[in-house]
Amino acid sequence: MQGPLPSADVPVLALGGGVTLTAVLRLLREAGIPAYAVCPSKDFARRSRWYRALSGDWEHFSPSQLPDLLAAVPLKRAVLIPCSDDWATAVAALPEKMAERFPACTSSLATVTAMADKWRFAELLDRQGVPHPRTQLITSHVDFDVLPQEEFRGAVLKPISSFEFVFKYGIKGHLVESREQALQIMSGLEFPILLQEFISGPPDAGYFLEGFVDQQGQICALMGRRRLRMYPMGLGNSSFTLSIPLEEIAAADSLRDLLRAVRYRGIFNAEFKRDARDGQFKLLEVNARAWWYVGFAGRCGVNMCRMAYQDALGMPVEPVTTYETGRRCFFLANELRGWKEGRRNGGMSLWPLIRSWYRADEALFRWEDPAPALVHLAQQMWPGLARSQRDRRPLESSSEKPLSNSGTR
Length: 409
Prior knowledge:
33% helix; single chain; 14 strands; alpha+beta; 7-stranded mixed β-sheet; 19% strand; 16 helices; Dna Ligase, domain 1; Rossmann fold; D-amino Acid Aminotransferase, Chain A, domain 1
């Protein structure tokens, strides 16, 4: 386990909200790194005992206003850690002079954009020869007309920008089986949109490679994770997950090659799905930032926020070559939703579900910092408490995540 840094005089300014921001603040606390955060006033991350707001009114700033925000913050210097796609893009786009005062461990703007823009990402994977779902850009109804009918069977309509799509439509995407169904759905959506092959399979066909790359291009940490349950089914997020040995994911070499090709730097979370038809691990997306389960990675022995801080300040980053495998983590709110949905279709009863959580970590709850989880659970039980959350821009693509074939995280 990585311990606290001997000295950490420069604070972090974390940008975002929700589960990811809460986890980032805890990881920084464990590393002995002072931190401030900018997030909306009603976000449950503000209930963390480690949350410190800057003096002044900052929660209404959007990522597009980041230069204005930084020009006004009462800090001589700070390391930036973004917790969502839009904040990550804003950080990567900072002018050089401002980035000297507010350094960040980030890739170039072109690389960050290529990871967030799903069409650019698909084109990148084509160029690099990385296995991934077949993806086509649809710019008008004419494109639908020229595609053969078989392209629509077992496909998904997904956005180019997941963050904007979720904000505008409140959904992640649509599974389709025919051209007619796709055209009907498009009557309520906007072009351009992507038509992507949907890789079917159970939740545990989802795998993740997560880690950190320093400014020299060295992968200082790499760990494996497998999804065991998810919600919603089909297009959803991990609700129960397991740390596994890297040897169980036959895609590590192709990911290393991809990261090297784009000169990647920083924290990353890469999602794969094992295609039962050919046994290949197909890459669905790479999140160029911290994500929901970054705190779980810390519990397994890999504090990536500590690494990002050190690298941003030009400090050497000691590689972490081992981590705890066989450790499990669940997200209570989604587990309960998934159980309720499954019961309608003859799924497991409540007691086996609860028993599966024994000795597992909960993604949001910590005994030493319980308030964020309790507030979040209350918001899920009484939606009126979270109304202000729904009325603002989402803080985390899919709040954890934009659409991918099988969901994310």
